[in-house]
Amino acid sequence: MKLTPMLTLAAVLATGSLPAFAGWSDGTFGGLQAKIYTPSKPASGRMLFVNLHGCAQKNTDLQKSNWDQIAENFNAVVILPAVGQSTLVGCWNYGNSSINMTDYAAVVNGTKSAIANTQYGIDPNQVYITGISSGATFAAAVGCGNPDIYAGVGPAAGPTIGSNQMNAMSGETPSVSKAVNWCRSQATSSKTPYYTTQLYAQAYGADPAAGDGVIGKGFIPPNREVQLQLYGLTGGATYAQDIKYSNTAGHTNTAETEYSVNDAKGAKRASLIVVPGMGHAWPSGVPTSGSVGSYVSNKFDFGTWMAVNFTANNCRMAANQGKSICGGTPTTTTTTTTTTGTGPSTTTTTTTTTAPSTTTTTTTTTTTAGACFKASNYAHVTAGRAYNSMGYAKANGSNQSMGLYNTFTTTKLRQTGTNYYVIDSTCP
Fold first, then answer.
1. For a tag site, which of 7, 50, 144, 233 has the least CB within 10 Å?
2. Bridge partner residues of 122 (DSSP)
3. CA distance 252 to 66
């Protein structure tokens, strides 16, 4: 039968196929309407991020965040589904009075379809689910019930799995054992072994003891305890006694603090990032457009934090099998060739790592000690060495802030790689 354009469209809709071209597009995700970002880089070994919106928020609000830059920087497909069966003001129903299993199944099936779609080139070992508020708790529930699918789970400002949704703002004393038992019952014995490699991080826009102004106090520490029990981890007596970091991946303009629990091999498995003053919002980083959506904040870039930290600690990835945190004892042979000309020097390093049952060869090319450029920030942007972000110039590649985007502010930039520039005061 000859397929006309209308029949082709009907076939795509019937199979739930998702469009696969660079940029944002509309599609379906397990039967749910969705906004989908496909990066411009080759469709191979890509991450997948599924991001669920919160109450009084739409998936289009999450488009007004940093997801497009994250997708391009890390070659990730980003899917923002809209809730299907909401019983409140656009909320994902995680507990009113029980979780909506229809939307739960839609998210799981949509994820499976996206992985199976070869046009996306998704690595099934790099699939992550995240969300804000009600979407955070819903994402946490989907993630803990399907640890075989989701290598990482990242809720932001979400109440505890199994809590009563009607108490989200007033607060309650959530049951850790109830949440743990529910997760294990959903995963069943065939999937619970995947808890040993699943990663978890939650972000919160205030001191957990004070609350973020919307979600009631008392949910964040129990969320941590649920994951520690599921993963068999031992942290400090409280999150404040966990391993502490500052100025982490995803840092923008706020002094966030990260508290993490490692497993016995040293992999970072469960984290809490506290972002003072952010309030109840999706930590989006600075969007390309400069404007953020409803309940979206530029005070921290949680997506970048997950892309960096989940990649570094994901022991399901073939590239990480030789790492000691993943149980490997790698044997490494490195060959380095350096070529220096009138421009930047170029170093090409080929590393072959042999771990148990896995051999990985990686070739890395870096460029250093390049040419210097002294010009106004306006001239740097015009010449393609920097870009304008909300009235401030930022260097390409390093994203260092150069000050106001105008013809009066002068900055010295050094090129250290292809389209990569750093501020260097030693430049003439």
1. 7
2. 46
3. 12
Q: How far is it, in rounded angstroms, from Cα 89 to Cα 103?
A: 16
pLDDT surpassing 60 at residue 53:
yes
Confidence of residue 21 (pLDDT cuts 50, 70, 90): low
> Looking at residues 161-185, what average pLDDT do you find?
94
The per-residue b/e assignment along 81-94, b for 16 or more CB within 10 angstroms, e otherwise, is bbbbebeeebbbbb
What order of strands is seen across the sheet that includes strand 372-376?
A: 372-376, 410-417, 420-423
C-alpha separations of 212 from 90, 218, 278, 307, 366 in Å: 20, 11, 8, 25, 43
Nearest partner of 130 among 161, 154, 157, judged by Cα? 154
Return the H-helix or E-strand segment holding 395: strand 392-395
Q: Are 108 and 186 in contact (CB under 8 A)?
A: no
First CA to last CA across the chain, in angstroms? 69
Q: How far apart are CA 97 and CA 94, in angstroms?
A: 8
Query: Residue 258: CA atoms inside 13 Å, Cβ hemisphere, count?
Result: 22
CB-CB contact of 309 with 325 (8 Å) = no
Q: Which of 375, 428, 421, 426 is nearest to 400 (CA)?
A: 421
Q: Please give the torsion angle defined by the CA atoms of residues 204, 210, 215 and 220, in that order, rounded to the nearest 10 degrees.
A: 50
Coil, strand, or helix at residue 427? coil
367 phi/psi in degrees, rounded to 5: -125, 130
The amino acid at 317: M
Helical ranges in 349-415 per DSSP H: 377-382
Phi-psi map region of 17: left, alpha, beta (phi>0 left; psi -120 to 50 alpha): beta
Encoded tokens for 239: 């999150």
CA atoms within 13 Å, Cβ hemisphere of 160: 27
What is the rounded distance in angstroms from the CA atom of residue 92 to the CA atom of residue 343?
A: 55
pTM for the complete prediction? 0.74
Find tokens 């870039």 and name the residue.
301
Structure tokens, 118: 């070869």
Q: Are 373 and 424 in contact (CB under 8 A)?
A: no
Distance CA 231, CA 144 (A): 10
